[in-house]
């Protein structure tokens, strides 16, 4: 029997979530669910559960570079996704690696956890703005991250366009502003734009508190679509559909906020 053709390959560069709901664990689950081969560069280890982050330890820059080169130079990648990068040194190292890689990059500028725990040093914000965002094919900040990076505070759907413009000024080709944290409305509204064309993505807002890992999952799903050769708007639309289903079926774990359901498409009724 001849060997099977390998699926598209996606590399996540992110931190570990010991509870399995976000971070590298969420990324790899998403990639498997969407039919691509997931690989990982670990940037940090967290002690984390449904209640919050109890501790975080970043890896040395040398270890991050070695993991990245080990994967890219041998196996190759069709897309890269970044998540928790922790410090200015790691942000700048990863930005340099992305700039030298011929593959689309989805940058999730992780600043805080779902529970409000800081995951990025304040001193790293300038590095994200000046080094990481300029090499992004798609940047996927949530509203808190938009405010952290640009100072723009989004309180209504009408503010999303201004937020996207502020993010695009830092150089990503596309900005996907995630409006799921908006307080009002029956829909979760996101805006994808490159400054010329706009794509408004709407989905029902589900009454489910178990949404841990939503941002990681969405960014990984976008990367999976890009690895398959989809155009950015099509990759984002597919990712929005996948994460909407994952949120709707998120489940309780522990005593706090449970994860989205990365395997929702495979569950039997």
Automatic annotation (TrEMBL):
Q: What ranges does the record give for the region Disordered, renumbered to this chain?
A: 1-21
Pfam families assigned to the protein according to its UniProt record, in alphabetical order: Phos_pyr_kin (PF08543)
Tell me the GO molecular function terms: ATP binding; hydroxymethylpyrimidine kinase activity; phosphomethylpyrimidine kinase activity
Residue span, Pyridoxamine kinase/Phosphomethylpyrimidine kinase domain:
17-261
Q: Which SUPFAM superfamilies match?
A: Ribokinase-like
Q: Which domain of life is it from?
A: Bacteria
Catalysed reaction(s) here are: 4-amino-2-methyl-5-(phosphooxymethyl)pyrimidine + ATP = 4-amino-2-methyl-5-(diphosphooxymethyl)pyrimidine + ADP; 4-amino-5-hydroxymethyl-2-methylpyrimidine + ATP = 4-amino-2-methyl-5-(phosphooxymethyl)pyrimidine + ADP + H(+)
Write the record's keywords in alphabetical order, separated by commas.
ATP-binding, Kinase, Nucleotide-binding, Thiamine biosynthesis, Transferase
Q: Which GO CC terms are listed, alphabetically?
A: cytosol
Pathway(s) served: Cofactor biosynthesis; thiamine diphosphate biosynthesis; 4-amino-2-methyl-5-diphosphomethylpyrimidine from 5-amino-1-(5-phospho-D-ribosyl)imidazole: step 3/3
Q: Which GO terms describe its biological process?
A: thiamine biosynthetic process; thiamine diphosphate biosynthetic process
Q: Does the keyword Iron belong to this entry?
A: no
- Describe the function of this protein: Catalyzes the phosphorylation of hydroxymethylpyrimidine phosphate (HMP-P) to HMP-PP, and of HMP to HMP-P.
Q: What is this protein called?
A: Hydroxymethylpyrimidine/phosphomethylpyrimidine kinase
Q: Give the originating organism.
A: Streptomyces kanasensis
């Amino acid at each position: 029997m001849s060997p099977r053709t390998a699926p598209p390959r996606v590399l996540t560069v992110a931190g570990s979530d010991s509870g399995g709901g976000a971070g590298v664990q969420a990324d790899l689950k998403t990639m498997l669910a969407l039919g691509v081969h997931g690989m990982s560069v670990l940037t940090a280890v967290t002690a984390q559960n449904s209640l919050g982050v109890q501790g975080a330890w970043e890896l040395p820059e040398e270890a991050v570079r070695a993991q990245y080169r080990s994967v890219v130079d041998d196996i190759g990648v069709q897309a890269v996704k970044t998540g928790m990068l922790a410090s200015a040194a790691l942000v700048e190292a990863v930005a340099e690696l992305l700039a030298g890689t011929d593959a689309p990059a989805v940058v999730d500028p992780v600043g805080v956890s779902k529970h409000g725990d800081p995951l990025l040093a304040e001193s790293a914000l300038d590095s994200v703005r000046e080094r990481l965002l300029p090499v992004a094919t798609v940047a996927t900040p949530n509203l808190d991250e938009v405010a952290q990076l640009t100072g723009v505070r989004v309180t209504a759907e009408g503010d999303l366009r201004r937020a996207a413009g502020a993010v695009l000024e830092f150089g990503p080709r596309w900005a996907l502003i995630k409006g799921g944290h908006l307080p009002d409305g029956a829909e979760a509204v996101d805006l994808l734009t490159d400054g010329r064309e706009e794509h408004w993505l709407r989905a029902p807002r589900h009454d489910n508190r178990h949404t841990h890992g939503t941002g990681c999952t969405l960014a990984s799903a976008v990367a999976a679509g890009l690895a398959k050769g989809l155009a950015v708007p099509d990759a984002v639309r597919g990712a929005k559909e996948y994460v909407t289903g994952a949120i709707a079926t998120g489940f309780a774990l522990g005593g706090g906020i449970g994860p989205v359901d990365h395997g929702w498409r495979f569950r039997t009724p």
